[in-house]
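Running low. Any example?
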Amino acid sequence: MDSLVKVHGGGGYDSDFSDDDAQRENPEKALKRKHEEEILQKPFQKGRHSQKAHRSLHSNEVDREEARNRRAHLISLNAFERHKKFVGDYILYYGGHLADFKRSAAKDKTDLDVLRENHRFLWRDEDEEDMTWEKELAKRYYDKLFKEYCIADLSRYKENKFGFRWRTEDEVVSGNGQFECGNKRCETQEGLKSWEVNFAYVEHGEKKNALVKLRLCPECSFKLNYHHKRKEVKAKTKRPSEENQEPPQKMKKEKKRKRSSSRSKKQRHKRARNPSASSDESEVSKDSDKDSEAGDKPQSQSEGEHWRGPAPAVEEKSREEEFDEYFQDMFL
C-alpha cells in the first residue's frame, strides 16, 4: 500500500499531462505567440477585455441614450408645447413664477375688429390715399357688398334713430331687402314699398350724408315715417311698345287726308255761296291734288326700292341692354 501511495502521489489523483511545462514556458516563445496573434487579428475584430469596463464608459452610454430620447420627444411636440416645456424647465432650474411669462392679450385684434375700426359706409377717392393693410382689408370687404338696397335697423324708430348697412351676397341671393322686407327683424313679402331716405351719420368723427333706398312692408314703413314722411319711390309708367305705335308714314298720310277733306268741305260751302269763284277754286284744288300726288310718288318708289336691294341690317341689342330692359321695373 505504501508503494501505491508513493506512486500515485500520496493517495491523490495525479496526471502525467500537467501544466508545469506551460508555466515554465520560455518568454521568447510567449512574445512570439503574442506577435502571431496580433498578425492573425482582423481589423474589425474587437480586442478581448480581460477586465470589467470602466465606469465612465457606462455613464457616457447612458447619457447618449438619454439625449436620443429627449430629441425624439422634442421633435414630436408642436411649437407651442415645446415653448411651454422650455419655460417650465427654466422656472424649474432658475426659479420664478409662470405669470411673469404670460403675454398681454389687451392689444390683440381679430379681422372683425380691424373691419369695425376701418369700415366706411361710402368710400371716396380721398379715403383711398395712404392705404394701410387695415384699410385695404376694409376696402376689399366693401367691394364685395351690394349697394342697390339697404338693410335697416328700426328698433329705435321712436327716437328717430335708424341704422343702415349694405347687403351681402347671401342676402341678395335669398332676396332679403328687395323681395322681402328690408327690416332685419321682419320677413314680410307682401305690400312692399320703396323709400328714399337721406341717411345722416357720423363716421370717424366726421358728419356725412348719403341717399339710400330700402324696401319695407306697411308696418315697417310706419316706423320709418313715425316722425316725418319720407319720399316714396314709385314704379315708372311703362312705355308703349313699338308694335302698338303706328309708323310715321301712316301718320303723315292720315294728316294729309284730314287736311284734304277739310279743304273740300270749305270749297263746297264757298261754291254754294259764290258759283262764279268755283272755277278758280277748282283749278287751285287740281294743282293741290297734283302736288299731293307728286309728294306720294317718292314714298311709293321708296317702298318699291325697299324690296329690290338686300334687307337692311338690324342692330342687335347687347346682353347688358337686354338685362337693363328686363330689370327696369324691378329696380325702382
Q: What stands out?
A: Confidence is low (pLDDT under 50) at residues 4-8, 296-300. The longest strand covers residues 193-203. Residues 278-308 form the longest helix (31 residues). The two ends are 146 Å apart (CA to CA).
